[in-house]
Structures are given as structure tokens and as C-alpha cells.
Amino acid sequence: MSSRRSRITEEEINELISKLQSVLPEARRRGASRASASKLLKETCNYIKSLHREVDDLSDRLSDLMASMDTNSPQAEIVRSLLQS
């Protein structure tokens, strides 16, 4: 039994590129001007990397905040409840 690969159409690719362009901050700033697919994919990779760095930074800051709090304080309880949501 041979495995069949589903093929993606050019129309589907264009739709996906358009969706990417609508969510990337840099592409939105450009407005209606359309970037090449390769440039858009590079921007996507860079944006994802920047989001990872931001998550890491926020995680570090939260860890520092939690370490500096009294674990029984009302503030620590608020932070814990927010993290569990």
C-alpha cells in the first residue's frame, strides 16, 4: 500500500501567506504591500524567536518576583491564583 501525500494548492498557499501577513506585526505595519513568501517566512521565524525570548524573560521575572515574596503573603496568593487560571 503506497502512502499518498496530499498536495497543497497554490490558492491554499496564498491563503496561508495572507493569514501569516495579517498576524505579523512587521507585515501589518507595511499595510497592503505584499512581501515575498520567503521574506514573510523569515519574518515569521524571527517573530516566533522574539516571542520565545519574551516568554523566557517574563518567566525569569516571575520567578524572581515569586522568590522575593513571602510565600504566605496575599500578593503571593494572588500570583498563584493567576497562574492556576
TrEMBL record:
Gene3D superfamilies associated with the record: Helix-loop-helix DNA-binding domain
Designated name of the protein: Transcription factor ILI5
GO biological process, one term: regulation of growth
UniProt-listed InterPro entries: bHLH_dom, HLH_DNA-bd_sf, PRE
Tagged with keyword Transcription regulation: yes
PROSITE patterns: BHLH
Keywords, sorted A to Z: Growth regulation, Transcription, Transcription regulation
Family recorded in the similarity comment: Belongs to the bHLH protein family.
One Pfam short name: bHLH_ILI
GO molecular function terms noted in the UniProt entry: protein dimerization activity
Positions of the BHLH domain: 1-51
